[in-house]
C-alpha cells in the first residue's frame, strides 16, 4: 500500500518543525509491526513473526510498534528523515 505525503500530514498543518501524532492519518500507523502484550513483533508476511523488543508494558509496546510502522510507511514513500547528529 502506497502512502502519499499529503495523506501522512493533514493539509492544514503545513508549516511545522515537529510532527505530532494527531497530525498524522491513522492508517499510517498500520503495518507489519505490532504489539503482543509487552513485546514488539514484526510479521514477515511468510507465516513467521519475530520479536524486535520487549517493553515495560503493553502501552509502550503498542506505541513503539506504531512508530516503527510510521517510519516504514514514510520510507516506502521515499521520504528522507532528518537525523540529529
Ordered list of secondary-structure elements with their pairings:
Blueprint: H1 5-8, E1 33-36, E2 39-43, E3 49-54, H2 58-76
Antiparallel strand pairs: 1-2, 2-3
Order of strands, widest sheet:
1-2-3
Task: Please trace the helix and strand order, writing H or E for each element.
Answer: HEEEH
| Main sheet specs | 3 strands, antiparallel
Query: What's the number of extended β-strand segments?
Result: 3
Q: Roughly what percent helix?
A: 25-40%
Backbone CA Rg: 14 Å
What proportion of the residues form beta strands (DSSP E)?
A: 15-25%
Gap between N and C termini, in Å? 31 Å
Q: Quote the average pLDDT.
A: 82
Shape: globular
- How many DSSP H or I helices? 2
Poorly predicted spans: 1-8
Which structural class fits the helix and strand makeup? alpha+beta
Amino acid at each position: 500500500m502506497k502512502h502519499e505525503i499529503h495523506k501522512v500530514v493533514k493539509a492544514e498543518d503545513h508549516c511545522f518543525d515537529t510532527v505530532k501524532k494527531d497530525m498524522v492519518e491513522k492508517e499510517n500507523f498500520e503495518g507489519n509491526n505490532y504489539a503482543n502484550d509487552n513485546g514488539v513483533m514484526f510479521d514477515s508476511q511468510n507465516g513467521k513473526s519475530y520479536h524486535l523488543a520487549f517493553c515495560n508494558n503493553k502501552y509502550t509496546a503498542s506505541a513503539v510498534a506504531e512508530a516503527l510502522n510510521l517510519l516504514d510507511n514514510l520510507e516506502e514513500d521515499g521520504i528522507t528523515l532528518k537525523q540529529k547528529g
